[in-house]
Amino acid sequence: MKTLLWGVLPYVAFVLLVAGIVWRYRYDKFGWTTRSSQVYESKLLNIASPMFHYGILFVLVGHLMGLFVPESWTDKVGLTEHTYHLLSLYGGTAAGVLLVLGILLLLYRRRTNTPVFRATTANDKLMYLVLFAAIVLGMVAKLTHASGDGYNYRMSIAPWARSLFTLQPDIDRMAGVPVLYEIHAVIGMVLIALVPFTRLIHMFSAPVQYLFRPYVVYRSRDPKRVGARPDRRGWERTGS
């Protein structure tokens, strides 16, 4: 069972993620969308959507730092394990609460707005269920081991996660990991496998290029403004 969970399931999830992305891109480009329901209702969406997106972004960044930044690196910059635990506890809990509130508001909106509810697919319901379970269980696991320095997952789960990239998973690292953390990890891998088959696929088409595009310069046609181009005469006039 340990080999299946920590040595096989991660690669199954990764293969489904990559294969699903390729399949969606080749055969379902028109379905590569969030299927926005803003046209049906926007007031509540304008509150819930930013909460959801910022929450999931902070949670993702926190997981990437916790799993892929070795403890030795933080030790070198003077960040003790106790300080890291407090940052992870309070920062992770705040991000998790923000994300959970965003999900709950989105679910409330979908359930109480008839057009939005009719546009909800079975994939949407499964996605919300798995995502909600992953976040809540992660928060519960963290808060359950909040006393003292908490559970140092950077000595067990993090090295195991990094070992996956060497194609030699160190499944022995997962021995003794608290059950709540194990369940959280399993649900997280299931969520990764589901990403290409749900609306979460749109995260891979985020308009990142907009951050680096050059400024668009607009010139005024108001003749009162300094530097405005004078009116054309004769045949140069538009429509002449």
Index terms:
240 residues, mainly alpha, 8 helices, globular
Oligomeric state, counting identical vs distinct chains: single chain
Q: What are the low-pLDDT stretches, counting only 5+ consecutive residues below 50?
A: none
**What does the overall shape look like?**
globular
Secondary-structure element sequence? HHHHHHHH
Helix content: 55-70%
Mean pLDDT: 83
Number of strands: 0
Cα(first) to Cα(last) distance is 82 Å
* Strand residue content: under 5%
Q: Compute the gyration radius: what is it?
A: 24 Å
Query: Structural class per helix/strand content?
Result: mainly alpha
Given the structure, what is the number of helices? Answer: 8
Tell me about the biggest sheet?
A: none
Describe this structure in words.
- There is one protein chain.
- This protein has 240 residues and is mainly α.
- It has 8 helices and no strands.
- The protein has helices spanning 2-27, 45-68, 71-76, 81-112, 114-118, 122-144, 157-163, 179-194.
- α1 runs parallel beside α8 and α6 runs antiparallel to α8 (179-194).
- The longest helix is centred in the middle third of the chain and has 32 residues, at 81-112.
- The protein is globular, with a radius of gyration of 24 Å.
- The N and C termini lie far apart (82 Å).
In short:
With 240 residues, this protein is mainly alpha-helical. The protein has helices at 2-27, 45-68, 71-76, 81-112, 114-118, 122-144, 157-163, 179-194. 18% of the residues are buried.
